[in-house]
Amino acid sequence: MNPDNARIGEIIDNAKISPYQIVILALCFLIVLVDGFDTAAIGYIAPSLREEWGLLPAQLSPVFGTGLFGLMVGSLILGPVADANGRKRVLLISVLVFGLATLASAFTHSIESLTILRFITGIGLGGAMPACIALSAEYSPARRRMIMVTLSWSGFTAGLALGGMLAAHMIPAFGWRSVLVLGGVMPLALLPLLAWLMPESVRFMASSGKHADTLRRVVERITRKSWSGVTILDDERPTQVRSPISHLFIDGRLVRTLLLWVTFFCSLFVFYLLTSWLPTLLKEAGYDIAYASRIGAMMPLGGTVGAVLMALLMDRVGPYPVLTLSYSVTAVVIAVTGYVMGDPYQLAAMVFLIGFGVAGAQNGLNLVSATLYPTAARVTGVSWAMAVGRCGSIVGSTLGAWFISTAGTSQVFFHWLALPVLIGATAIGGLYWLSTRRNPTVKPAQVAHAETQ
């Protein structure tokens, strides 16, 4: 290569991790933390909302479903927009939208207006999360990418757990509206900090010459040395395909994209069904709201712990075998959970393990989605995979009441819930097989790293 040129991927990978990169990952952590808090808020307030407004369980389904439908719409639309126009701009707009909509939800007085506001909230959430995944992946060196991205993304499950813990105290003291007020104020307070400190994607800037000066300043903050006179290039060759969406299905990615989508669908189906309906299910089993919130918080707490431990393992042996094993073991855990509903301590432990296996694995799955696609379609690849996952979350959350009533017993309910987790394990195993078949000389731990370049 010309000595006056340098590749952005090589710069990031060869440099020591700088305080500036840690700040970026910390900002991503905070974004997905408030994102997770707002996503789970409706599930934690649902029992109190139902009691105050005199609603049947089925009447809450549209509130769950439209919020997740908004997430899907936001992912589908804003992902390609971010790839075409920049990650930061879409991220800021998304945070503003879901912050304002969540705050407005605290002052609603009808199920119809709450449903509309949850849809708008979902659009903002759907735009923020994929952009955060792409940014954290692009600012992390390959040798530490799995753990760094996981630590930043663990903010989502931490936000879910924080929501449960705070809801247990806030709802009895201040009412359910206080949870939504907090969920709206947090992202709005974070917005000025993001506008000031969050940079644009390095790979997005490297793909266009008009961002050369800004990119050079960002690289100098990372490497702490001058890059004057050096042209910083993207790692990928310029593409003639203009639509980011087309990259999901060309160059042998069709089957891999479909397998990824199946895993996302199954994983988020189970995760959101439990996140939305577990507090209600526990209340019907005889637990009060405070206890139900605490047990429900064990799932995202387990996800946070699982994400970090699995990321350390995935950096050593690769994401695919770890994810396959995680989903397989969790299916067994889910199948036996219905038999311990009467014991709060055993139940809390089982919910923790479900979160460890499903929510923890979801963090690794998010990074896998960021490694399968080139710069021109990275946010699109992540956001469309998450959009398909949102379809699973919509189905799971809206059919939760039907699942509970039709199953009849908690044992049958959890037996049914184990099946999609097994399907997800099979799909991610197929993706692993395709990746190793494409390059059988690459060790499992190198698969995701190689695909990122």
Fraction of residues in helices?
over 70%
Number of domains: 1
* CATH class annotation: Mainly Alpha
DSSP E strands, number: 2
The low-confidence parts are 440-453
Q: From the alpha-carbon coordinates, what is the Rg to the nearest angstrom?
A: 21 Å
Q: Which sheet architecture does the biggest sheet show?
A: 2 strands, parallel
What's the helix count?
17
CATH topology: Growth Hormone, Chain: A
Strand order of the largest sheet: 1-2
**For the record, what is the CATH homologous superfamily label?**
MFS general substrate transporter like domains
Beginning-to-end CA distance, first to last residue: 17 Å
Structural class: mainly alpha
* CATH architecture annotation name: Up-down Bundle
Determine the strand fraction and express it as a percent band.
under 5%
Protein name: AAHS family 4-hydroxybenzoate transporter-like MFS transporter
Helices, strands, pairings?
Blueprint: E1 5-7, H1 8-14, H2 19-53, H3 57-85, H4 87-105, H5 111-138, H6 145-174, H7 177-197, H8 202-206, H9 212-223, E2 231-233, H10 254-284, H11 289-317, H12 319-337, H13 344-371, H14 378-398, H15 400-407, H16 410-438, H17 444-452
Parallel strand pairs: 1-2
Descriptive overview:
This protein has helices at 8-14, 19-53, 57-85, 87-105, 111-138, 145-174, 177-197, 202-206, 212-223, 254-284, 289-317, 319-337, 344-371, 378-398, 400-407, 410-438, 444-452, and strands at residues 5-7, 231-233. By secondary structure, the protein is mainly α. It has a single domain (16-207, 216-224, 246-439), classed as Up-down Bundle (Growth Hormone, Chain: A). The chain has a two-stranded parallel sheet. Helix 10 runs parallel beside helix 14 (378-398). The two termini are 17 Å apart. The model is unreliable at 440-453 (pLDDT under 50).
